[in-house]
Amino acid sequence: MSSAPARVYLVDDDADLRDGVTKLLRDAGYQLQSFPSGAAILAAYPQLSPGCIVVDMLMPNMSGLDLHRRLLSMGCRWPFIMLTGHASRTAVTSAMEAGIVAFLEKPVREAELLAAVMRGHAYLSGQAEMIPDPELIRRLNRLTGRERQVLDYVLQNKLNKQIAAILGIGETTVKGYRRAFMKKLNTHNNTELVVLALRAGLFKPPKS
Description:
This protein is of the alpha/beta class. The chain is 50% helix and 12% strand. It has two domains: 7-124, Rossmann fold; 134-199, Arc Repressor Mutant, subunit A (Orthogonal Bundle). The protein has a five-stranded parallel sheet, sandwiched between helices.
């Protein structure tokens, strides 16, 4: 992240989802502002600085696609990430044809959302590709083979007991490897770990 936090605007009528996504993205270092409806962000838009917009596709009164069209008509070219709990082939096609940078199904995986937001900000800053951070790659190269194995499974959302079963080791041993690589990578929680993995190029942003 740069010294000035990247901005994300979240638009969703589900208060619980807003709270969860807000915490995730703020923990990841983003400056986040949430809105309960398309009308609310439209009213605020003239005062907002450029950022990435994360929006629920299916909302009462104004859908995510309707909001996208309204903002386009106002000259807004900020990256859009569309969320929905009821995906269909037609809906996905419509979203992508409208220029949405990512389309994610609920419940959204943390890694996928963070990757999409990073892609959105790369688009906003005119970067064609996200370049892996060489310092983070050096940190990853300091991990032992077993630590890297455990890390890979953690990034796949595997539980400690699942990793232990896959690798044929004890759950306590898995916890020990996790503590070791968290210390080597200078991360303190799973959100920081996912952000590091994204910046190091372990995750690729979803393609549109």
